[in-house]
């Protein structure tokens, strides 16, 4: 098997309307696919070369202990300020490492979302 890229990452959500308010309203992501199916609902946001999805389906359960996606932003300080202005609670950071700035928040279902900015030369 040869893996070429991550096709998509998905967060399970319990309330699609509430989740979309966060992903579209707070994070500013644009829907590129919206598919309702029997017993489920799947929404995708294309970001650069990748796709972040949110989904409601039997057996998909949100967890604060699951995997995280970090979203690369143009301006880290502005992104942090916008999240704070929206009263989004930070569960980690903001912090600086030798290669980046990062902070993590949670979506309405508790899934961890990273806000990230690489430093020049680390990309």
UniProtKB/TrEMBL annotation:
Could you tell me which residue ranges the VOC domain spans? 2-118
Entry-linked InterPro entries: Anthracycline_SecMetBiosynth, Glyas_Bleomycin-R_OHBP_Dase, Glyas_Fos-R_dOase_dom, VOC_core
A Pfam family of the record is Glyoxalase
* Name of the protein in question: Glyoxalase
Species of provenance? Roseibacillus persicicus
């Amino acid at each position: 098997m040869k893996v070429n890229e991550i096709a998509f990452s998905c967060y399970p959500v319990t309330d699609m309307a509430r989740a979309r308010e966060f992903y579209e309203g707070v994070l500013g992501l644009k829907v590129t696919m919206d598919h309702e199916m029997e017993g489920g609902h799947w929404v995708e946001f294309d970001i650069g070369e990748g796709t972040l999805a949110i989904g409601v389906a039997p057996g998909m359960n949100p967890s604060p202990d699951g995997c995280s996606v970090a979203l690369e932003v143009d301006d880290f300080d502005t992104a942090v300020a916008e999240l704070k202005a929206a009263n989004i609670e930070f569960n980690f950071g903001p912090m600086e490492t030798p290669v980046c700035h990062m902070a993590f928040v949670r979506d309405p279902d508790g899934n961890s979302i990273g806000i990230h900015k690489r430093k020049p030369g680390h990309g």
